[in-house]
Amino acid sequence: ALAGSKDSKKKKKKGLSKGAKAESKVAKESEAERAKASAALWEARLEVTEISRSEYREAARVLARNNEELTWQQHCLEKDTVEVISFLKKQDVEKEEQIAKLKQQIADLKQQAQEENEKAEHYSAQLKDLEEKFSKKAREIGLIQLELKTIKEFRKKKAHMEKELEDIKENMRISNREHQETLGRLENRFIEEKQLLEREAEKKIVMLAERAHHEAIVQLDSTGRAVFKENVRLQEALAYHLKETEELKKVKQQLEEDKAFLLQEKETNETLVQEKVRQVTLQKAQIQALQHKVERLEMALGHMTQEFETEIQKTRHHALVQNQAGMVEINKLQQLLEMKDREMNRVKKLAKNILDERSEVESFFLEALDQVKREIVSSRKCYKQVAQVAYQKKMMEAFAGKEEYPKIRTFNSNAHSTNSVYRDLQEAEKWTNIQQGKVDIGQLTWEQKECVLRLLFARMNGRERRLIVDISSARGVCLFPVNQKGNGFDELITESWSLKLEIELMSRVAK
Fold first, then answer.
1. Range of the domain at 377
2. Which of the chain's ends, N or C, has fewer CB atoms near its CB within 10 Å?
3. Residues 6+ apart with CB under 8 A from 209
4. By C-alpha distance, which of 353, 352, 362, 356 is closest to 500?
């Protein structure tokens, strides 16, 4: 009995251990399935993330390439702008030289014009009396010429009017002949059509009578209907012919009215022809009287012409004497002008030296600006790359769950972006980080250095003063204008050299 109880206890323990093992096996299988599902889910997420990451990298590379192209285009445009500005400044200098020459020429021309005006006033006083005499005779000659012009115009109009009258008569004859021919044709056509209609009507009546007789014999029932239809058709044909007859009558009446109008116009034209013939007769008499008057005036004009030529010869002799005196004065002025030209050449050499020195300063300054721009482009490109790498690193850490996702940041120049890398680049141009007092040039950013160089260039352009050469026609003195501080030509040269040294020092520090 004890052995049997022991065996039963052992069997119970074995059954319990087998059930626990089965439950643990089921639990492990469910955990493995959940792990597989979670792994598949994370693999899908990882694949989607890798795809979006590759697309983002490709878009970033395209944007970087576009940005580099735009930067290069901007650099080329700035370079072209600088070249155009230098070329325009060179043209301004040449134009200023031309303006100075033209001013001198204008002064000489004004002096010559003044002398000529004085001579003209002297001559005008002498010619005034002759002009008064000549004006009286000219008025008389003008009246005669006006009358002659009227006569010539009438002669021209006479032939034209006669030709118009002949044309009107010829047109009237042609119109009458055409009217008669048209009227005859219409009457003949009306009679022929009337006769034709009558013959056709008679033929149709005979044919209808014969047809009615035969049909009456064959079909007496349909006789009334056929006769009615034929009567209706004949009535329509008769109405059409009557309407055409009325239209022909209207055309005939219109032609008769046109004929009456043409006859009336013919009578009016004949009356006008008679009136024009009477006017021509009167004008012929007036022409003969005016011709006699013209002959008398031509004789008087010949005498006046001889007197006027005598006065002109006297005036020419007097003008020749005055011209000889003027030539002596001109020789003196030419000698004075040669002295002024020598003085002008000396001033031009000085101005050329100043312009050459300034061109050297400008070229040196432009090279410094170009180098600073290249440094700005390089530093911005490096900053963008570093910022992009840091942003991608934060996104990967946030994706891994180590920290929160950062704010969305753009790496292109979008005006509507609230967190763009270009805003950081714009902050480099501000002066908020500079304290008052002495500032070391090494503490400035490349954008601030560029601003300083541009301010120096603006200062140089502000200090530049034009060299104006004014050769006085009375004294022959070369004058240099002073600037706002009262400095003269020597002070201008000193300022240009000091400004050149400042720019050279600033560009070396920037490098």
1. 340-411+418-432+441-510
2. N
3. none
4. 362
Task: Give 214-244 pLDDT, tens digit per residue.
Answer: 665 555 455 555 666 676 677 777 777 778 7
- Percent of residues, the chain, with pLDDT higher than 90: 0
- Enumerate the β-bridge partners of residue 410: 420
Model pLDDT for residues 428-453, shown as the tens digit of each residue = 676 665 666 566 666 677 777 778 77
E strand or H helix that includes residue 436: none
Residues 315 and 349 in one domain: no
Both structure tokens of 473:
């026609």
Please identify which residue in the block is written with the tokens 């022929």.
192
31-83, pLDDT tens digit by residue? 778 788 877 878 887 888 888 788 878 888 888 888 888 878 777 777 777 77
**Phi, psi of 410, rounded to the nearest 5 degrees:** -105, 150
Alpha carbon distance 414, 143 (integer Å):
86
The Cα-based distances of 95 to 55, 350, 400, 473 in angstroms read 59, 17, 71, 22
For the record, the structure tokens of 395 come out as 């996104």
The values of phi and psi at residue 420, to 5°, are -110, 150
3-state secondary structure of 429: coil
State the sign of the Cα–Cα–Cα–Cα dihedral 361, 366, 369, 371: negative
Boundary (domain end) residue, out of 299, 329, 359: 329
Same-domain check for residues 252 and 376: no
How many whole angstroms separate alpha carbon 234 and alpha carbon 237? 5
Q: Are residues 75 and 377 in contact, defined by beta-carbon separation less than 8 angstroms? A: yes
CA-to-CA separations, 506 to 162, 211, 229, 495, 498, in angstroms, rounded: 99, 129, 121, 17, 13
Give the SS3 label for residue 420.
Answer: strand
Indicate whether 291 and 345 sit together in one domain.
no
Check whether residue 240 and residue 348 sit in a common domain.
no
Q: Six-digit token pair at 383?
A: 């900053």
Q: Are 503 and 361 in contact (CB under 8 A)?
A: yes
Stated pTM of the model: 0.27
Q: Which of 109, 72, 100, 159 is nearest to 479 (CA)?
A: 100
Q: Give the count of domains, the chain.
A: 2
Nearest to residue 493, comparing CAs of 469, 463, 457, 456?
463
Using the structure block, give the residue that is written with the tokens 């004065």: 329
